[in-house]
Amino acid sequence: MPFAIDREVRMAEKLPGPIFTITENFSSITALCFLINLKILPTSASLFSILDCNSLIKKLSFIFNPINLFLPVQLIIKKFFIIIYFIGFFNITNNLYSSEIIDDYGIITFMYHRFQENKYPSTNIKTEVFKQQLKLINDNQFTYIDPKKFKISLKENKNKKKILMTIDDAFLSFYKNAWPILKKNKIPFILFVSTKEVGKHNYMTWDQIKELAKEDFVHIGNHSHSHEYLIDYKNEDIKKDIETSIKIFKNKIGYESPFFSYPFGEYSLDFKKIVKELGFKYSFGQHSGVIDDTKDFLELPRFPINEKYGEIERFKTLLNTLPLKYKKITPEEKYINNSTNPPVVIIEFFENKKNLHLINCYSNEENKWRKSTIKFLEPNIIKIDLQGKFTTERGRINCSLREKNNSWRWMGIQFVVKEK
Fold first, then answer.
1. Residue 291 to residues 11, 159, 285, 296, 416: CA-CA distances in angstroms?
2. What local confidence, expressed as pLDDT, does residue 20 receive?
3. pTM assigned to the model
4. What is the spatial order of strands in the sheet that 345-348 belongs to?
5. CATH number for the domain whose boundaries are 324-420
């Protein structure tokens, strides 16, 4: 029965019944069409509200108590105002997910290591999956970035989707299984080489690296000499290691690369300073996120791709990521010790950042991924309250903010825990 004040008192079926049912259906259809016309996102909240619209209209009707309760005209008026309320509610709720015009897609950067070396799943990608990923990139109309035009690509054509491909370590499996695909399609990429490992078992030789370097769409980047945990070294030893690799680069391929990839994605303030003093303009870590021209060029993010994190569905999600721009992250020092672990993490965003209260962050303190507690110090400044220390070698925080068209603004932070 449409209206029931209590179990004993029911309205006559013939009075409001047919009118109420038609109005309910009409209101649901009207609200749904209105939402579709506005291209409002089908969030879980809005979908639930649409599906439950009839029930909610019934409940809210009791808020109004006209003198003649059963007059059909007054019922229609009540429902009209309730429909307007719902439309306004849907509009406000969904606009929280459509925060701003996408005027900068940034550069999504992927990091690969091994290809078709299935006994190393944490650093391997299967060749067939790699081909599927390249197809997805093409189907979504991305442009591959030429490393030689990296700076220009950051500044210009920000409304276009861009991809930068990077491969670390120069494993032989890359040369055998991925290089023929990239060469055939002339896909630009950076191959980061650790000079000490070249020619050893399962690594590329200098002849093979030179073969790649001859192609104008390939750039050979520096990945240190030894590929050791340099962050634990003394500053003079870090500098010596990288200087050795620079000399070998000059001798073998004839140039010094402006690109550097931190071994294991680990860096400290001192390490960054050394890299800058040695002439590198861009350095990459292994924390996730999308590059844009507001980022620190000496700690650029990349999405690591392997068997687990390279699955097609996840890869589709990564292709829908956008830069999450910020002014500053504290602490600046990402190399933490027992007295600075857990770090007090504060992120300052730009003042015009909309709907920042919808941001979500996740962290892996105590070796357990969890949703982080966020406190707002200012409308554009958040503090991430970690619930414990980072107990593994690397502590990670990932933050995302939903955008329209199922896109996500994404940023990551990586801390390295100093050995005791």
1. 63, 14, 12, 9, 21
2. 42
3. 0.78
4. 328-330, 345-348, 381-385, 373-378
5. 2.60.40.1220
